[in-house]
Amino acid sequence: MTNSDPAIHLRKCRWLQFARRMGFQVAAIARGPEKESLAKKLGAHHYIDSDAQDPVAALQALGGARVILATAANSKSMSPLLGGLAPRGQLVVAGAGGDDPISVNPVPLLFGMRSVAGTMTGSSIDAEDALSFSSLQGIRPMIETVPLANAAEAYGSMLRNEARFRMVLRRHASRQANAGR
User: Where are the domains of the chain?
Assistant: First the structure.
């Protein structure tokens, strides 16, 4: 991994696909070995299981990340990742949640000229740009289909954070996960 490449939390599948299609070396960070095959299917060159290894050490062993896109809705999991950045690297926060603030040690910021930035996504122009890029690069969404009759179950699954991908309601469809059929 060169210091021009991003590390991305696995939670947001499209960012892995986008970074890979932009030509970056991509490291995905998630919890558990069962997520590695999906991360690699989505385009990650490297998978870092944060339950089995220290993500900061793993990123530094790869040369450090120029960008870490932190999409987890857990500020506590973002704070230590600052140490995984290469000099002049940037931690971009694109997720928020919990009551804990992001804790930042100023030493790596000052001596490594690292930075932390935030970004909001989801505007109509963001969606238009994402769809255009996806179309140009052949990126297909990962979805779960659920019969319309089970809409309440699908909604409950989303509220419990059990939905793995976007939930799509279909008439007479069985529940399945697919890569953009």
Answer: 6-118, 140-181
